Amino acid sequence: MGVLLLVLSMLMWSLVGTFVKISLTMVDATTVTFFRFFFGVVFIALLLLIKDRKIQLRGNLTWIWFGAAGKTANYIFENIGLHYGYSYGNMLVTPIQTVFLLFMTVFYFKEKVTPANWVAAALCIGGVLIVSWNGLPLQLMFENSGFTTLLFAGAGIGAGFHFLSQKVLLRSMDAGNMNFSVFFWASLITLMPLPWTFEWSGTVEADALLALVVLGFITGVSFYFFSIALAKVSFLVAVLVGNAAPLFMILWGRLFFNDPVTLYIMVGTAVFLAGILLLNLPVRTGVKAPLEE
After folding, report:
1. What are the transmembrane regions (predicted)?
2. Distance of CA 27 to the CA centre of its chain
3. Are 276 and 147 in contact (CB under 8 A)?
4. This prediction's pTM
5. Measured between alpha carbons, how far is residue 234 from residues 159, 169, 225 in Å?
6. From the CA atom positions of the chain, what is the Rg in Å?
7. How far apart are the C-alpha atoms of 60 and 66, rounded to whole Å?
C-alpha cells in the first residue's frame, strides 16, 4: 500500500507540467496559479472534514506567511516558465530547490555539511546547466532557454521557502491543517492581481477546465498520499521512487506535446538526479532533497 501511494504521488507530480500546459490554452499563468491553490484548498478541506470533521485555519504564525509567499512564487514562476518552455521544464525546480536549501543550511542555519553534499550540489547545478544549454550556441542559449531557466530558478527558491516553512510548522501543526492554512492564504494572495492580469481565450474548453481541477487535486492530495507512504516505506525507497518524476515528465512531454528530447536533456537530467540521490544515500547529513510537489 505504501509503495502504491508513493507511485501515485510521483505520477501526479510528473503530470503537473502537462496539465498546466493544457490549462494555459484557456487562461493565463496567474489565473492557473490561483486555481491550483483554490481547488487545492477545496480538496484539502474535504479530506480534513472526512478525516477529522474539523478544519483549523491559522494565520497567526510567521512561517505560515513565509510558506504562502514561497509557494505562491513557486507556482507563479513555474507556470510562466511552462508557458514559454517545454512541458517538462519544471523538472528543474527540484534540483534548484535542493541547492537553495543546502545554502540555507550552511549560511542561515549555520549547520555543517559534508564534502559529499557540495559534490551533490555541483551535480544539481551542472545538470540544470546542461539541460538549459541543450547543445545550443551560448548566445542562443541565453536568448532561448536562459529566460525560462531563470523562471524555474525563481520557482525553486520559492519552493525552498515553502519547504522550510513546512519543517518549522510541523512542530506545532498537523500536515493537513498546515497545508490548508498555507494554501488558503496563498489563494488570496494570487486572487488579488487577477482583475489586472486575467486573460481568457474567449471559449470555455472542457479539457482546460478539467486540467485546472486536476491540478488542484494534485496540490491538495499528493502531500497526503506521500505522508502516508513515508510511514510505510523506507526513506531511500521514497527518494528513488519520488525522483523518478522527471523521467516521466520527459515521457509525457514527448507523448502529449511532441516536445523535443535530446541527448543533452537526458544527460542533464541524469546528472542532477545523481546529485539529489547523493544527498539522500546512507550516512546523510545536511539538507535532505525535497520530494513533495
Report:
1. 34-50, 62-82, 88-109, 116-133, 145-164, 176-196, 208-226, 233-255, 261-281
2. 20
3. no
4. 0.92
5. 24, 23, 15
6. 18
7. 12
In the chain, the amino acid numbered 115 is P
* Residue 233 backbone class (left: φ over 0; alpha: ψ -120 to 50; beta: rest): beta
Grid cell in block for residue 209: 477546465
| Residue count (the chain) | 293
Grid coordinates standing for 283?
550516512
Ramachandran category for residue 256: left, alpha or beta (phi over 0 → left; psi -120 to 50 → alpha): alpha
The cell for 212 is 485546472
Question: Quick check: helix, strand or coil at residue 9?
Answer: helix
Distance CA 263, CA 278 (A): 22
CA distances from 229 to 10, 171, 198, 242, 246 (A): 11, 20, 38, 11, 20
Q: Rounded to an integer, what distance in angstroms lies between the CA atom of residue 108 and that of residue 104?
A: 5
- The H-assigned helical ranges of 108-193 are 115-133, 138-143, 145-169, 175-191
Residuewise pLDDT in 10s, the chain (293 residues): 778 988 999 999 999 999 999 999 999 999 999 999 999 999 999 999 998 999 999 999 999 999 999 999 999 999 999 999 999 999 999 999 999 999 998 888 888 888 989 999 999 999 999 999 888 876 766 667 788 999 999 999 999 999 899 888 988 888 889 999 999 999 999 999 999 999 999 998 999 999 999 999 999 888 778 777 877 887 678 777 878 899 999 999 999 999 999 999 999 999 999 999 888 775 444 556 665 55
- End-to-end CA distance of the chain: give it in Å, rounded: 20
